[in-house]
Design a protein that fits this description.
7-stranded antiparallel sheet
């Protein structure tokens, strides 16, 4: 019974991880951990002959959760069998010829063309039924709307967002918790938007990888010929090469050497038999076609010793742990550090200085700890900030423990503070990247926020800096001068008061009718009366303005700024209502946009659920998160984005 109990445990764990990944765009375990458990399940099923009806080895995907129209695929979309062993890949190919290509890490989409026009686009969904996203597909940056071929054409491909666009989009999001975790998550949300304007702004790319139906197209019975023909019709096709058993290892090596320079996400390779008729004659299993095989990089592991855990403070006070270990060679480079992400992971790995650990590069790029062989559990969580010596505290946010520095004046926060002050949702000073700010701070040009408005004192020095000249200097000064016309809410957000982000800054400014003096002199008991401003935040606000240096900086800023009142002509349908937003979004670009819409309609957006909350917006309505539990205990309705959109009408 021991084996069957383990099988049940593995099926439950893997299905839950897949559900979180595909339906909620949330990763609860690494690819390395998932593959390890999956391989263990496959072995147990083979040894025992027992395969449960809900096993992920025979079950393809999950039912989709969306209000987008659904449609059944003309032919089912199966997963691929996989291996991490190059020799096994060579053995599988045998004496046949094959086509090897990238296994793109995005969202699979099926396109249908009739009479040369793109008429339909459907996501993979659960393999049998997908979501219709035709309007969004027409916004992909590299997709042909018309082609020369006039017969009925059905092709499959992968929608992906490049790393460069992923970083650009994330850099524009000031709320750390709202940033996207990886390009796949962002792509999934972008492709499935109800508003195709957002899809267009995300720069989604489409790479074709299979021709399903092409009436009367003579491809010479060659899969490679399929891809070449698709290129001739204007499609961008996944990078691919014709290969055989003698050449295959070299081709795999060539792909592996390209990974670090790729601007698109991939999680392995795909090998397809070039002989289409022979491949089809092999048929399929319940889950896999027999004409193709996926190759996942066998993560090169190295065993080393943990020498230290460094803790790095950010602008918000979050202190991130980083593992430092004896240098090892991985994938051709020397590695000595890996992010541990949070306190929960430190504890789950039972880390301790001197422990023997195994490390690898996720997708051959990002260093990670795969396991701790010693598990001494002796690592101490710092009780004081490693930079300022201030007291730290552990916060539990929806089951994840993180460490914070409670000293809001921690000097480690200066660079991040300036970055926040000049960001789009604060003072909106374009052209001041973090690297530029760092140069200015190190050169002594910036000490307090008001120094930004006196950069003209250093014109000669700035124009002489690498990357700067007269034109870039002039643009910078123009951006600084443009920011002089601002709002009290923007300034309040930019100051970086603990807990006071864009939404709360607007709530406070509105409550005090944009009177900065009243805000500076606000009493604790006044602040706690404001919807969404709890006791902790009220205390942080009072302490901030009790500091003479902060008030001096604000007074100097007032001499430079001209405050304006934001006009709002929209009907105030949410007047007197307070919302809390949590979880990932499908229909809005990010949380900032949703919050802005609510506020423009008279509502307020708070950071935590209270008895004053009107609605909690969470697409996972039935989750057991702390916010959902609190909302239910207070009889606060938990609604999805779709429910919220219905409120608009």
């Amino acid at each position: 019974m021991k084996d069957i109990d383990r099988i049940k445990e593995l099926v439950k764990t893997l299905n839950y991880a897949a559900m979180k990944y595909y339906q909620e765009d949330t990763e609860i375990m690494s690819n390395f951990e998932y593959d390890k458990l999956y391989d263990e399940l496959c072995k147990l099923e083979k040894d025992t002959g027992i395969v449960l009806s809900n096993s992920p080895t025979i079950k393809v995907g999950y039912e989709i959760l969306s209000e987008l129209p659904r449609e059944r695929h003309e032919s089912p979309m199966l997963s691929l069998d996989k291996t991490k062993d190059v020799d096994a890949l060579v053995s599988w190919l045998g004496s046949n010829k094959g086509v090897i290509s990238w296994k793109m890490d995005g969202l699979t989409v099926v396109l249908t063309y009739e009479n040369g026009e793109l008429v339909k686009a459907v996501t993979r969904g659960n393999g049998e039924i997908g979501e219709v996203i035709t309007g969004n597909a027409k916004m992909f940056v590299n997709i042909p709307h018309r082609i020369g071929y006039k017969g009925k054409l059905i092709i499959r491909g992968e929608a992906v967002i490049r790393y460069s666009d992923f970083n650009r989009i994330n850099d524009a999001i000031t709320d750390v918790s709202a940033k996207y975790k990886n390009p796949r998550n962002l792509c999934s949300g972008s492709v499935r938007q109800l508003n195709n304007k957002i899809t267009k702004e995300r720069n989604v790319n489409f790479f074709a990888f299979n021709l399903v139906t092409g009436d009367d197209v003579d491809l010479g019975n060659s899969f490679n010929g399929q891809l070449d023909w698709l290129e001739s019709q204007g499609f961008e096709v996944v990078e691919h090469y014709l290969t055989d058993g003698a050449d295959l290892k070299d081709k795999v090596k060539m792909f592996s050497e390209k990974i670090s320079g790729n601007d698109f996400p991939s999680d392995g390779l795909v090998l397809v038999l070039d002989d289409i008729a022979y491949g089809r004659s092999l048929g399929r299993t319940a889950k896999f076609p027999r004409d193709s095989m996926a190759f996942k990089w066998a993560d090169e592991e190295a065993v080393t010793h943990l020498t230290d855990i460094c803790w790095s403070a950010s602008r918000t006070g979050l202190i991130n742990p980083v593992a430092v270990f004896e240098p090892v060679e991985l994938e051709g480079t020397t590695v000595s550090r890996a992010s541990i992400h949070n306190v929960s992971i430190v504890r789950s790995l039972e880390l301790g200085i001197g422990d023997e650990i195994a490390v690898y590069k996720a997708n051959m790029i990002i260093p990670q700890i795969s396991k701790n062989l010693t598990r001494s559990g002796s690592a101490e969580i710092p009780k004081s900030c490693p930079v300022c010596g201030g007291e730290t505290e552990i916060r539990n946010e929806e089951g994840v423990e993180t460490l914070y520095c409670t000293n809001e004046y921690c000097p480690a926060k200066k660079l991040k503070s300036f970055g926040h002050f000049v960001s789009r949702n604060a003072m909106n000073i374009d052209g001041l990247s973090e690297s530029t700010l760092e140069k200015f701070i190190d050169s002594g040009y910036l000490d307090n926020f008001d120094d930004l408005y006196h950069l003209d004192r250093y014109k000669e020095e700035i124009t002489g800096m690498e990357g700067f000249g007269d034109k870039s200097y002039a643009k910078l000064i123009e951006a600084v001068d443009t920011s002089r016309k601002t709002t009290v809410a923007r300034l309040l957000n930019g100051l970086g008061i603990q807990g006071v982000g864009e939404a709360n800054a607007k709530v406070i400014a509105r409550y005090f009718k944009n009177d900065l003096d009243k805000i500076i002199n606000a009493r604790y008991d006044e602040l706690v009366e404001i919807d969404g401003i709890g006791k902790i935040m009220a205390g942080d606000i009072v302490r901030y303005f009790e500091n003479k240096e902060n008030c001096d900086t604000i007074e100097k800023l007032r001499q430079e700024l001209e405050f304006q009142i934001e006009k709002n002509t929209a009907e105030q349908i949410f007047e007197g209502m307070t919302f809390v937003v949590t979880g990932s979004l499908n229909h809005y670009d990010n949380r900032d946009n949703l919050k802005a819409e609510i506020e423009s309609l008279g509502g307020k957006v708070a950071g935590s659920v209270s008895s004053k909350t009107s609605y909690l917006i969470n697409n996972d309505v039935n989750s057991q998160s702390s916010k959902n539990k609190k909302a239910r205990s207070l009889n606060v309705p938990v609604i999805s984005e779709e429910d919220y959109i219905k409120l608009l009408s």
